Structures are given as C-alpha cells and as structure tokens.
Amino acid sequence: MKPAPFEYYRPETVDEALGLLAEHGSGAKLLAGGQSLVPTMNFRLAQPAVLIDLNALAELEHIEPDGDALRIGAMTRQRQVERSALVAERAPLLHEAVPFIGHPQIRNRGTIGGSIAHADPAAELPVVMLARRARLHVRNRRDARSIPVDEFFTGLFATALGPEEILVDIELPAVPPSTGWAFDEVARRHGDFALVGAAAVVTLDDSGRCRDVRLVFSSVGDGPVLAHEAARQLEGEIPDDAAVRAAAGAAAERDVDPPSDIHASAAYRRQLVRVIGTRVLARAVERARNGSVS
Amino acid sequence: MSQQIPISVNVNGTLYERAVEPRLLLSDFLRHELELTGTHVGCEHGVCGACTVLLDGDAVRSCLLFAVQVDGHGLVTVEGLAPDASSDRLHPLQEAFREAHGLQCGFCTPGFLMTLVAFLEENPHPSEREIREVISGHLCRCTGYQSIVEATKIAARRSA
Ligand SMILES: Cc1cc2nc3c(=O)[nH]c(=O)nc-3n(C[C@H](O)[C@H](O)[C@H](O)COP(=O)(O)OP(=O)(O)OC[C@H]3O[C@@H](n4cnc5c(N)ncnc54)[C@H](O)[C@@H]3O)c2cc1C
Ligand code: FES
Ligand code: FES
To answer: N or C: which terminal CB in chain B sees fewer CB atoms within 10 Å?
Structure first.
C-alpha cells in the first residue's frame, strides 16, 4: 500500500525542528531512519498529517567522548555505531549488540535514537541502554532535560518522551574497573527480531564477588525487562557456574512474563531466558575477571 | 492541492529534476517517474529486499525512503551496474549470477545484486558465512539461495 498524504518539512537545526513540532502538535511525526515508521505509514497504520524529517540535522550525528563517558547523537546511523572504533573501545556491549539489528541495509538508515524512541520490546538497543544505565538527553522548544534510562521505557512502544520533545543525545557513563559484559539472542533466522535477547553487565569487587549486576531481556514484556531478582541473588556472591545458573533461573521464574505468539510460546521464551541469561552472565563474569570494560 | 517539492537527484550518473508529492516512495519514483523498472517492489515494509538500491554507496531499501529525502544525493540502481548500457556486457557479479544460475524468475535479483555489489566492495574476500549473513536481508522464492551464494563466490574469486 501507499502512505496517506502528509506535509513534509526538513529542518536544518534542532531548534527549527522543535519549533515545527510545537507548532503542529500531535498531528506531527518525527522521521529518523524511517525503518520502523515508514512501514507503518505504508500500511496506513500511521497517518501523520505532518512529517518532520530529522535527516538534515548534522548536529545530531556524532560519536564522541565526554570525559570518561561516551556521547552518541540520536541521528547517528546504527551502521556508524557498529563501525566506530570509539564505540568498540568504550561501549563494547553496544558494539556486540548492534549487528543483531535487522540487516546491514536496515542499519545503513536506522538510527540509534529512532530505535530507542520507538521502544519495541523486541529491539536490541533499549536492552543495551538499560543494561548500561544510559542517560537520554531530550529537548523541547524551551528546555532540555536528561532522563535516566530506568525512567525512560514506560510500556509497550511507550517512553517518557513528551509530545513536543526530541531525543537528541545518548550518554553512556564510564564503567568501573573489573566490569564485564555480553549480549546474545535467539532468532528464527539471522536478522529477525529476537525471540529472546539478553544483555549482562557485571562488576566484581576485589574479592571476586559481584558488586553490581545488570541483566536485561528483550521480547519478554512490554519493553526491555530488567531482571531485579536475578541481580539481587548474585550481588555479594561469588558468581560461579551454579550461582549464575540459579540467577538466570530466578529471572526466568520471577522477573519475566513472556507473551505467547506465532513465533514462540511463553514456556519456550521462559526456557530461552534461562539459557541465554546463563550464557550472557557467564560471559560477562569471565570478561570481568579478565579486566574488560563494558 | 497537495504539496509538490522540487528535487534533483543523480541516478546512475544522470541528473534528474522533478517535482514530487512528499508521500511518493523512492521505489515508486524510480519505477514510475524515471521508468527505471529494474528496481522491484515486493513488500513495501523493508523485509523482502527486492527494492534495494545504493544511496551514496550504501545499500538501502527504496520502499522505506521518500523521494523528497534523496534530493541532492546520488543513487545507483540495477540499471547502473553494466559498464555500458548500449552493449550486452554485464557487471562481473551479474555475469557470475548468470553462470551459477543465481536466478530463476529474477524478481529478487536486482535487490541481491545491489546488496552484494556494496558488500563485495567493502569485503572483497568474504567467507561463505558472511555471504549468507548479508543476503539474509533478501527473500528469494526460486533458487534456494545456494546458487546465489555460489555466484557471489565466483565474483569474489575473479576480482582477486
Ligand atoms: C526488515 C527490518 C528488520 C528489522 N529488524 C530489527 C531488529 O532485529 N531489531 C531492531 O531493534 N530493530 C529492527 N528493525 C527496526 C530498525 O532498527 C529501526 O531502524 C528502528 O526501530 C527505528 O529507528 P529509525 O531511525 O529507523 O526510526 P524511525 O522509523 O524514523 O522512527 C521510529 C519512531 O521513533 C520516533 N523518533 C525517531 N527519532 C526520534 C528522536 N530523535 N526523538 C524522538 N522520537 C524519535 C519516530 O517519530 C517514530 O515514531 C527492523 C526494521 C526492518 C525494516
Ligand atoms: S519492497 Fe522494499 S523491502 Fe520489500
Ligand atoms: S529468482 Fe525468483 S524470487 Fe529469486
């Protein structure tokens, strides 16, 4: 099918984009990479009256250090993130996860900000953001604020972004020493949305006990799901094989409430949480012991 | 009266200037406005890969772009692959597809070619696994993929 008619704007600055957004209100949609929005417009599931194309906003396309943290502009293509040496060095979890997003042809257009704002429960990037305690920097016409990721994802395809706000920048904080990381997922075919995806970030203390654990899953809830119970079980413990398996088991039993759909049953997804959860935790622990950073 | 926006776009080395309605998909612009019907349309939601073209050198889905967005940019479509439109000579990858039976009905072929041209440019000596990974973004209902993988290997070998 073809999209319904709309009015098209291509602002040159973020200020101009914010002005247009305020002016046109809820009838307007922001167009980033278009890899989620345009299919829904083609099928007329979305029929915005006004489209504000963010693709001319060079100020939102950058990957740069900010002290020990890393800043990525919202309009940075997923493919640029994948190829960035700085991302590989400072955010290897993100580096490991991006190739799982669709296909290269999709990542050539799809943006980091678009995926986060879209908040698909099956998507990789929201999981990484939650695991890495990202801060999401957003602006409206008058103000700027930064939202801790724990408050950002609020439900199915829903975020804390206000109707007149644009996500401008993603900040990944520095990670402490003795921190390891891992991302993995299971999909029917390479490039398909994950049946279950998982990210782990583990920080060990001097005695080899878990000081901090972040375990996050995709496709098992309304958004990315942080496994609180699994983390609580591991913190303060030596993460040996049995402890890691038990924590992933706790995640499967208590942290997630997976859906049944045509792709997989809830029971199968729960089993995947156990298996992939164990895998990413074990890998993260191993990397933490070898002194990697996430 | 719907909005009409002037665009100028370089396709296969030729500059085209047109006025387009914002909702016109790039795939339809190529096929209906420019009559470059080599770019095929299978699904219009980014899944089948038949509409893949090169935008400033990168393989992208033309069904997920509006024509207004490529104003000032450069495109290559399957029509731009052969070295000389007036002769029968093919691009080496097209040649390899012919030899290895990398196509049957040919519906999916333009998309595969565009993805693989960009891929081989970046990675001239890919492993079979890498080839299979990059074509996972394309659907073919005829060949079973095996002969497409084979054709890609032949093209890669020849460019060595
Ligand atoms: C075939 C196919 C396979 C895919 N597979 C995967 C996959 O495996 N995993 C995955 O995660 N994704 C997948 N995707 C989706 C892809 O990653 C999209 O790029 C991503 O979800 C949206 O990013 P975008 O830049 O394309 O945003 P768009 O589609 O342009 O926008 C998405 C939404 O976010 C809003 N938005 C965009 N940018 C901003 C901003 N800066 N501030 C506020 N709101 C904004 C838009 O208004 C829109 O509502 C796939 C897509 C296709 C077509
Ligand atoms: S028509 Fe564009 S991907 Fe299928
Ligand atoms: S050759 Fe017929 S779909 Fe691929």
So the answer is: N
